[in-house]
């Protein structure tokens, strides 16, 4: 009876989170921030011209559109617009609930706990601030998140087939074609597989991910005279920038994040089993976050500005990835060993 | 969970206003939707001009956006991005204008903007 009530409450929260995020997304046409300057600009260019190279034409000096960014999200927007018959910024908002449902479904599937905890993990994903912010509806992170969560889901699965690393590699190739952070995920995942002595899997994932994702885009981009990382470069390297990035992160986010970090630490302190079984996940999320922080040492723009305007989007991937483990940890003290 | 729920409940607009906004957008036509979209509505007259040009000019006709020195830098950048978005895949190049001038003109044929 109690479990049924918990399940009902969890399902209600999931419904509320999904409905709220969907309503915010569908309330207005895509038009804000980097959608207009980056993603939507390129999508409209591809849609109108039918050519991928149009993404370099609209802003030839690369002043604001980041021509080096991978093209999958603009391609998805333009392709969807072709399917619906016109480039309509309101109809394209429908992609958001679709991607959110996939991400929530993957979170539910990844959580190894009783149903109420699985539903709560999925509900938490839909309630994350990223999905409750209308401005981010046209951004690429939702697609990136779905691709990464799907790859992690496959690799976490206890039953691994020869097809598993191939599919994970393909998903991470697509993630690399969505945002540059996808390449970072690919490197972390391949590294963790290698560290776990799954050398063949690591080679397959890295080979497919780089060979079908990062590499083709790099070649295509270079052929059009566009450099790889406009905001980052070896010449800009200063070790102190990473420290400044941490300070900026602390100033911008620490106060708001502190209760969450303490809560997560408490949950994990009471769940030694999850700490053990989920170690690769925590290691992966930590390494990803560490590499991101380290990358700020190579940043060309002001690091404080960069961190302030990107940290919440950069935090989405690791936070969403560890959500299942947190809800497993919350459920562990109540488990009797039967599940 | 409660904190996340509270965060989601604290919306940027009252629910009734949000609902009315959604109703207006979903009942409008594509042109009205775009002109009134939050990212464009602030410069609706300029966006309307750009939309008219987008439907009239060929796709390979690039544009020159002349903006005078009296127009603040942030507004200049905002207008440039809006023009680029509405006119995509055409190139939009900034050129110095006079006073508070803001005009979108076709780039001279044979002289692609740089």
Indicate the topology.
The complex is a heterodimer of chains A (339) and B (114).
Chain A: H1 2-26, H2 33-49, H3 54-57, H4 72-84, H5 95-110, H6 115-127, H7 141-156, H8 163-176, H9 180-195, H10 199-223, H11 240-269, H12 272-277, H13 279-295, H14 303-331
Helix pairs in contact in A: 1-5, 1-6, 2-4, 5-6, 5-7, 6-14, 7-8, 7-14, 8-9, 8-10, 9-10, 9-13, 11-14, 13-14
Chain B: H1 2-9, H2 15-27, H3 30-36, H4 38-41, H5 44-56, E1 63-67, H6 73-87, E2 92-96, E3 102-106
Parallel strand pairs in B: 1-2
Antiparallel strand pairs in B: 1-3
Helix pairs in contact in B: 5-6
Protein model, in words:
The complex is a heterodimer of chains A (339) and B (114). Chain A is an all-alpha fold. Among the domains of chain A are: 160-228, no CATH class; 230-339, no CATH class. In chain A, 71% of the residues lie in helices and 0% in strands. Chain A is built from 14 helices and no strands. Chain A has helices at 2-26, 33-49, 54-57, 72-84, 95-110, 115-127, 141-156, 163-176, 180-195, 199-223, 240-269, 272-277, 279-295, 303-331. In chain A, helix 5 (95-110) packs parallel to helix 7 (141-156). The longest helix of chain A has 30 residues, at 240-269. Chain A is globular. The two termini of chain A are 17 Å apart. The model of chain A has no long low-confidence stretch (mean pLDDT 93). With 114 residues, chain B is α+β, with helices and mostly antiparallel strands. Chain B has a domain at 43-106: hypothetical protein PF0899 fold. Chain B contains six helices and three strands; from the N terminus they run αααααβαββ. A three-stranded mixed sheet of chain B has the order 2-1-3, covered by helices on one side. In chain B, helix 6 links the parallel strand 1 (63-67) and strand 2 (92-96). In chain B, helix 5 (44-56) packs parallel to helix 6 (73-87). The relative contact order of chain B is 0.15. Chain A binds chain B through residues 13, 16-17, 20-21, 23-24, 26-33, 35-37, 40-42, 44-46, 48-49, 51, 54, 57-60, 64-65, 86, 88-90, 120, 123-124, 127-129, 132, 134, 259-260, and chain B through 1, 3-5, 7-9, 11-12, 18, 21-22, 25-26, 30, 33-34, 37-40, 59, 77, 80-82, 84-85, 88-92, 114.
